[in-house]
Specification:
This protein is of the alpha+beta class. The protein has a domain of about 250 residues: ATPase, nucleotide binding domain (Nucleotidyltransferase, domain 5, 2-Layer Sandwich). The protein is built from 16 helices and 23 strands. The radius of gyration is 22 Å and the shape is globular. About 0% of the residues have low confidence.
Length: about 525
């Protein structure tokens, strides 16, 4: 089955959509990328055009196959991985979204979350979902869409019957994996990892929670069916008469960070990875136990294979890391991300400058939706190299925040951290990360582990790969970084970081953003 066949993965991310094709050894044989527009209707609001995402997905798939001279009939399966929490509502009959997708970074529902806090519902939500009550998750986004989406955009619809149509299942709600699966197969399906990020799903009962649906006024009829991440029944197949020209089973899906956990072969309790993308997401496999966090982390579903128990994970979500590098480019401090390492090395340190990139609030372990980006410690002698280096250091400090919380919750000492994502191509950052957290940093040979993880899930479901052991054999080290900085120096720098974080907190109040 594997000689002339492959597994494809749609990696739908915050800034664009990638399609990759992998062979039996887990090596990339095709790769194409399409960028989509970021929509900022108001300060703190972030949206995507879901139709553009679907069109870009088709374009990336077609281009990758064409450039590699592969036929869609050679695909044994398709997997999907996606930006999590980003929420879409669409018409079940026409397939048209009723509004732009609301992106995970969006903060428009912060006031709603604060009402939950005032009403004493935060702990109740945490007990059910493993999540911190935050605008980051899908529940308040879905509620906002149902209350505020412009019904004029929906043919045949009047203002007063939007919710009636949702109750009747004529409007569908989903995260981006569901949106893509619907367009590929016609089925309304999600996997357990994406469901676990909605703040509507009970991760212990493994079911949509009626009480949470009532709290956020989300009709059950609009929700997708929840399936395992690697699903032997498949989510459906592509239409042989469609754009691919072949019937290919869609048999795997994971939220992007769980996909990276799977792609990094973190299959056992205690295995940990950190993905450096737009944000950074640090996950540790905790096995079949949902470990409750006492230190501001999330308890989430790691993955599930058909017929097997759910594997849980602890997660620390850092909202802005790679996006901080993009910001440096936006404000013309750098011309390209590749400059950052050279500039950072050009100075001995930051000269006391700290950057806290809380552009959309602070995630784990602080959870402050009203924190905002801050630069402190500047003097007349501050140069752009100091600010660039301080931005890289901020990525490392935020990761240590999460690492220390995770070690305390899981009662383990982390000796090795597997890393992936675009930023880890920067050797300076990898060494800095090792120095700040005091652990080995290991970068894999195939660093597109998000796409690889969803391909692994899909391939396992159809028998393209037989076992987890087979996948472990595919994993190879590209680079290994050990701590070099004196621990006392690292601790001193990290202590000062906490002072800078305090300066950023609770800033966006009284009408400010």
């Amino acid at each position: 089955m594997t000689d002339n066949t492959y597994v494809g993965a749609i990696d739908q991310g915050t800034t664009g959509t990638r399609f990759m094709v992998f062979d039996h050894g887990g090596q990339v044989v095709a790769n194409a990328y399409e960028k989509h527009e970021q929509v900022y209707p108001e300060p703190g609001w972030v949206e995507h055009d879901a139709v553009e995402i679907w069109e870009n997905s088709k374009a990336a798939i077609t281009r990758a196959l064409d450039e590699a001279r592969l036929d869609a009939t050679q695909l044994a399966a398709l997997g999907i991985t996606n930006q999590r929490e980003t929420t879409v509502v669409w018409d079940a009959e026409t397939g048209d979204p009723i509004h732009n997708a609301i992106v995970w970074q969006d903060r428009r529902t912060t006031d709603r979350v604060e009402r939950l806090e005032t009403e004493g519902k935060v702990e109740w939500i945490r007990e059910k979902t493993g999540l911190e009550a935050d605008a980051y998750f899908s529940a308040t986004k879905a509620e906002w869409l149902l209350n505020n989406a412009d019904p004029i955009k929906m043919e045949r619809t009047r203002t007063e019957d939007v919710r009636d149509r949702a109750e009747a299942g004529e409007l569908l709600l989903g995260t981006i994996d569901s949106w893509l699966t619907y367009n590929l197969t016609g089925n309304h399906v999600t996997d357990v990892t994406n469901a676990s990020r909605t703040m509507l799903y009970d991760i212990h009962e493994l079911a949509w929670c009626d009480d949470l649906l009532a709290e956020f006024s989300v009709p059950r009829a609009m929700l997708p069916e929840v399936r395992p991440s690697a699903d032997e029944r498949h989510y459906g197949s592509t239409d042989a008469d469609g754009f691919l020209g072949a019937s290919v089973p869609v048999s795997g899906a994971l939220g992007d960070q769980q996909a990276a956990l799977f792609g990094q072969t973190c299959f056992d309790a205690g295995d940990a990875k950190n993905t450096y993308g737009t944000g950074s997401f640090f996950l540790m496999n905790t096995g079949d136990e949902a470990v409750e966090s006492d230190h501001g982390l999330l308890t989430t579903v790691g993955f599930q294979r058909s017929g097997e128990p759910v594997q849980y994970a602890l997660e620390g979500a850092i909202f802005v890391t790679g996006a901080a590098i993009e910001w440096l480019e936006d404000v013309a401090l750098i011309e390209s991300p590749g400059e950052t390492a050279e500039l950072a090395r050009s100075v001995d340190g930051t000269d006391g400058v700290y950057v806290v990139p809380a552009f959309t609030g602070l995630g784990a372990p602080h959870w402050d939706g009203r924190a905002r980006g801050t630069i402190v410690g500047m003097t007349r002698g501050t140069r752009r190299a100091h600010i660039v280096r301080a931005t890289l250091e901020a990525i490392a400090y935020q990761t240590r925040d999460v690492a220390e919380a995770m070690e305390a919750d899981a009662d383990v000492e982390m000796e090795t951290l597997k890393v992936d994502g675009g930023a880890v191509k920067n050797n300076f950052l990898c060494q800095l990360q090792s120095d700040i957290i005091g652990s080995r940093i290991v970068r894999p040979e195939v660093d597109e582990t998000t796409a690889l993880g969803s391909a692994y899930a899909a391939g396992l479901a159809v028998g393209y790969w037989d076992s987890l052991a087979e996948l472990r054999d595919n994993w190879d080290v590209d680079a290994d970084f050990a701590p070099e900085m004196d621990r006392a120096d690292a601790d001193d720098k990290y202590g000062r970081w906490h002072d800078a974080v305090e300066c950023s907190r609770d800033w966006a109040r009284d009408g400010t953003n």
